[in-house]
């Protein structure tokens, strides 16, 4: 096994989807699509981490949040050699439960400790989706940290803009939206869409 997942393709997909909280009781194709969606979400988090140059051995990943998106982040980090997660959620019981599921890589942290230590911070909450609130103060992040906000909105989120203003690498969740839409299009129609057209539509 690598990163706690079995090597067999089908078993590996099922395990990754279950860890990211995306599996449901069997319902034919619907269950298969949900399982694949959980795997793809973890893959997309890993891809965005690479784009930010933050997927490197022994990195510390800070994650505010403890829902399904946070679980997908932890499922991705399990594949990154030597990496670990500092997790914070305002509901301590939720954070403890998620850390227990990913006990090989995750432990709970307070917001200040997370900010000081993380090489990459991934916002897996809905903070900033409809307002200009920040999940963490960018001023508390260490120099050289990267920021990935799974939230996306027109003009980017306030957190991404604030992180860039500090000179940090930052990206929102729009690339994930594009990829999720592209994968759904391909599953439905049997051929890949024109991603350039999709990007033009959201700008």
Would you kindly provide a brief summary of this structure?
46% of the residues lie in helices and 12% in strands. The chain has 203 residues and is an alpha/beta fold. The chain starts with 8 loop residues before the first helix and ends with a helix.
Structure description:
The structure is a single chain. With 203 residues, the chain is α/β, with parallel strands linked by helices. A 6-stranded parallel beta sheet has the order 3-2-1-4-5-6, sandwiched between helices. It is globular and about 45 Å long.
Highlighted features:
8 helices; disordered N terminus; 6-stranded parallel sheet; 203 residues; alpha/beta; 46% helix; globular
Share of β-strand residues: 5-15%
Q: Helical stretch count?
A: 8
Shape: globular
Instruction: Please give the alpha-carbon distance between the first and last residues.
Output: 42 Å
Structural category is alpha/beta
Uncertain segments: 1-38
Helix amount = 40-55%
Alpha-carbon Rg, integer: 17 Å
Topology, element by element:
Layout: H1 9-19, H2 29-51, E1 60-64, H3 68-77, E2 84-88, H4 92-101, E3 106-108, H5 111-117, E4 120-123, E5 146-149, H6 158-165, E6 169-171, H7 174-189, H8 195-202
Parallel strand pairs: 1-2, 1-4, 2-3, 4-5, 5-6
Helix pairs in contact: 1-2, 2-3, 2-7
